[in-house]
Every structure is written in structure tokens, then in C-alpha cells.
Amino acid sequence: MPNSPFDEIIRNFLRILEESFEGENEPPRIIGCTIIASGTPTPVQRQIEYEMTESDSCVYITARVPSWHDAAVQFEPDSVILSIGDREDVIRLDSPIDTEQSTFTLNRGVLDAVCVKAA
Question: Which residues form a coiled coil (predicted)?
Fold first, then answer.
């Protein structure tokens, strides 16, 4: 069986885990990890986790809002600005939207924004 490009990564993870469980002096040393399988990475830094789907007439954005935070949405012709608590994220859109017809609701910790595409 040919070697997979991920074999060495997995071996390194296993070695680090084995070392962390052998000694009682030090905690594991893994702080963070990024695995890029192929292609050029395009880093996305999000302040707010959200999901976005698109239809022929609208763009739908959904985000979870913890109960102790306020939330607001600002519609721009080419973007949407989500504000949840002290975090803010600008979502660039592929299609221009009609800011007057676009709306959002906040119900039971779920923010739903409906961005109506411009005619």
C-alpha cells in the first residue's frame, strides 16, 4: 500500500500523544493545528460563526446568538454587517441586495437574515 501524505502527520500526532501520557510532569504541547490538504489556503477570519445559503432571489444568513448578547444586522448594497455582543463581522455578498426589502429576525437565540437580491 503506498504511503499517504497524511501518514507522517498522523505519526507525529501519535508520538506527541504517547509522550504526553508517559510523563506526569508536563501537559500536552499541542496548542493549535491547521491541515491544508491541497491548493492555496484562503484564510477566513470570522468574528461570528454563521451559515449562508443562496437562492435565485435571496441570500439567507443564520447565526446563533447566546441569550446574554444583543444582536443587530445592517444591510449594505454589497454586504451585511452582523453585530452580536461586542463582535462584528462583515459578510461580503456576490450579488447586490435591496437593503429596503431585506429583513432579519431574532427568535430563541437564532438570528435569521433574509437579504433580497436587487432586481
Answer: none
